[in-house]
Amino acid sequence: MKNKIDELIKKIKEMQNPTVMGLDPRYEMIPEVIRNKYPQTLEGVAKAIVEFNKKLIDATYDIIPAVKPQIAFYEMYGLEGMKAFEETCKYAKQKGMLVIADIKRGDIGTTAKAYSNAFLGKTKIGDKEESIFDVDFVTLNPYMGLDSVKPFIEDCVTYNKGVFILAKTSNPSSGDLQDVKLQAGEEVYIKVAKLIKEWGKDLVGENGYSSVAAVVGATYPDQLEEIRKVAPNTFFLIPGYGVQGGKAEDIALAFDKNGLGGIVNSSRGLMCAYKSELWKDKYAEEEFDKATRAEAIRMKEELNSAIK
């Protein structure tokens, strides 16, 4: 059975690059050359975001398999921001990139189904069913158990989509809950990883990985290695590389002998490469897209060197 993770793996193999570019466009990150084109209104900000995102996509679509727009950075600008989110997702797909909508939904029942209809499935309008955002993957919070993920998993089957479920996140306080030991002696993150494995056991694709996948942070390499051992058929979305401190050699623990098993996110590191110490003297602000491409190539080489 071929699944959505197989599609992602195919693109990773073709580009020899296990990277996903996070698109979290805070207004102050956008170069002045773009900001100055538009009025400082909600509509103007949204237009600046779209232009910024499109230029980043144009610079990387042939070397990066996927993008991950974080919906909060669009919702904060209201309806205009959500239009920018939709346009960004559509443009990335037109360019051949897969889209991971970072929405971290975690509700139950009909509410979870409604969320899934919006992003993975279809919404009934009159006598028709229509795709709304129609992304490839979403991120989910499993705190409310199977009820919160089941509607999404059902849509993964029906519409050939995928989900990344939070297991061990990269933020400093993740251990407040995720590292707590249960009566059985295992930590919460191990229990969640085992649940993700169980929820996805019937959706394993040709490459040996399920389209019910996990979010596992690069900033906790020991836990990452543990989760890989208990969930060998679970594909990882790996945040925390670069700016947050995750190192390529630590990330390598997530990958199998064939160099597969995960995709590594970089948001600020790629989006704002033009501001970094490595590239700021080589590229002018208006060449921000060239700096992003250069950083994407550097990141790809570093990851591949560590994984191999």
Estimate the mean pLDDT confidence. 95
Please tally the helical runs, counting DSSP H or I stretches of 4 or more residues.
Answer: 13
Largest sheet descriptor = 8 strands, parallel, barrel
Number of domains: 1
End-to-end gap: 27 Å
Based on Cα principal axes, name the global outline. Answer: globular
- Helix-and-strand structural type: alpha/beta
Number of extended strands: 10
Overall helicity:
40-55%
CATH architecture: Alpha-Beta Barrel
Poorly predicted residue ranges: none
Output the strand order for the largest sheet.
1-2-3-6-7-8-9-10
β-strand percent reads 15-25%
Provide structural commentary.
With 308 residues, the chain is α/β, with parallel strands linked by helices. It has one domain: Aldolase class I (TIM Barrel). It has helices at 4-15, 32-35, 42-60, 72-75, 78-94, 109-119, 146-159, 175-178, 188-199, 221-230, 248-251, 268-271, 288-307, and strands at residues 19-23, 66-69, 98-105, 123-125, 128-130, 137-140, 162-168, 210-216, 234-238, 262-266. Helix 3 packs parallel to helix 5 and helix 3 packs across helix 13. The protein is globular. The model has no long low-confidence stretch (mean pLDDT 95).
